[in-house]
Design a protein that fits this description.
Layout (H helix, E strand, L loop, with lengths): L1 E6 L11 H9 L4 E5 L24 E6 L13 E5 L12 H5 L3 E4 L2 H6 L8 E4 L19 E6 L8 H11 L6 E6 L7 H8 L10 E5 L9 H5 L3 E4 L8 H8 L4 E4 L13 E4 L4 E2 L3 H6 L8 E2 L3 H13 L1 H15 L4 H19 L1
Parallel strand pairs: 1-2, 1-3, 3-4, 4-5, 5-6, 7-8, 7-10, 8-9, 10-11, 11-12
Antiparallel strand pairs: 13-14
């Protein structure tokens, strides 16, 4: 049976990573027709040669689309319709339900998302299909610097908890010269200095500990260079459907500090990292809800700056434990190579094909 996949392919968004399921299936002999949607800002990635192998899809075929609910459409010519979707709050928006119910099945990246999608009015099947990483480019290497480095990677939005992280770090590490916070994001509309000042609650610019920011877009192959120079990855996010940067850090043997709320808890635990306790839930900022109206009136985690400070200080002072958890983090990540998670996709497709006969 042929497969038609529609979604972002040539950009660096989280949804664009889903293409790797299908480039891997193509390499395994599946006939996959790719349809790109969205902008094109990244034309280089492992598996790009698979994109144009199949020009037209033949019946019978399975239709797979990725994106948020309003972007998903049923293909009446397909034998089966699947949507790959995700969400970061306690539940999905009510006005998304009808879009999902037009499909036969929804794939989500984590058990957290499966709970988020667990609603009585959602009639389609929900299956957990985790994301993965490319073990051909995410290869552990020896760290080259001696400065203890916290690394954060993510989109520059309130949901990622940048305000919490920046204020926790700048408050806790004043006067410490052998530590730094490195931030990798792609927000190019503001200067590096303005990005930091945006989230500072007080004027600490004259005595802040060291912060380094890279806000330029980089290629998929360049990204591992940032992780390789880190001792610990940190992202006190208010909500994550999966948190691929945390997995990529672990793939390079970098243990993770993150919130005990979200899809990352499928692979981050107290054995291979540090979970920030969540003592309260709250609605997201009005600013972010204006950017994404789907977030209105939904509940997200609210990690405390105090807890973040305490965990960062503990990690900084217990470097032997960081080394121990580094090994366990690496071992956990190896369960999520694209080859291994594509096995899950392939097995599910075989089940669907059998059911359709």
């Amino acid at each position: 049976m042929h497969i038609q996949y529609t979604g972002p392919i040539f950009n660096s968004s989280g949804y664009a990573k889903i293409k790797f399921f299908f480039t891997h299936l193509s390499k395994r002999g599946y006939a996959v027709k790719f349809n790109h949607i969205g902008n094109k800002d990244d034309l280089k990635f492992n598996g790009i040669e698979e994109i144009d192998k199949v020009k037209e899809v033949s019946k019978p075929y399975i239709n797979v689309m990725s994106g948020i609910a309003p972007q998903l459409r049923r293909d009446e010519n397909a034998s089966y319709n699947i949507g790959y979707s995700m969400f970061e709050a306690n539940t999905i928006p009510e006005n998304w339900i009808n879009f999902y119910n037009e499909l036969d099945e929804i794939w989500v990246p984590s058990t957290f998302c499966a709970k988020t999608f667990n609603r009585k009015d959602l009639k389609c099947i929900v299956k957990v299909i985790p994301l993965g990483f490319d073990d051909k480019i995410f290869i552990p290497k020896t760290k080259q610097n001696n400065i203890f480095t916290f690394l954060a990677v993510g989109k520059w939005i309130d949901r990622k908890g940048w305000d919490l992280l920046i204020n926790a770090y700048t408050s806790e590490f004043v006067g410490d010269n052998d530590v730094r916070l490195c931030i990798k994001t792609d927000e190019q509309s503001k200067s590096k200095e303005d990005l930091i000042k945006e989230y500072l609650t007080n004027d600490k610019t004259s005595f802040m500990p060291r912060i380094m920011v890279n806000n330029q877009r980089v290629s998929e192959a360049t990204l591992p260079l940032f992780y390789q120079e880190a001792d610990c990855f940190i992202l006190p996010s208010r909500g994550e459907a999966f948190c691929l940067p945390a997995l990529e850090a672990m793939a390079l043997g970098v243990p993770v500090i993150t919130s005990d709320f979200g899809g990352q808890t499928d692979f981050v635990n107290q054995d291979n990292g540090w979970l920030i306790p969540i003592r309260m839930l709250k609605h997201l900022s009005e600013r972010l809800c204006k950017i994404n109206s789907a977030y209105n009136n939904l509940w997200f985690a609210e990690p405390s700056v105090k807890d973040i400070r305490q965990i960062m200080r503990y990690v900084y002072q217990h470097k032997n434990e960081v080394t121990q958890k580094s090994k366990i983090a690496f071992e956990m990540a190896q369960k999520y190579t694209w080859d291994k998670v594509t096995n899950i996709v392939q097995n599910r497709l075989k089940e669907i094909e059998v059911a359709l006969k």
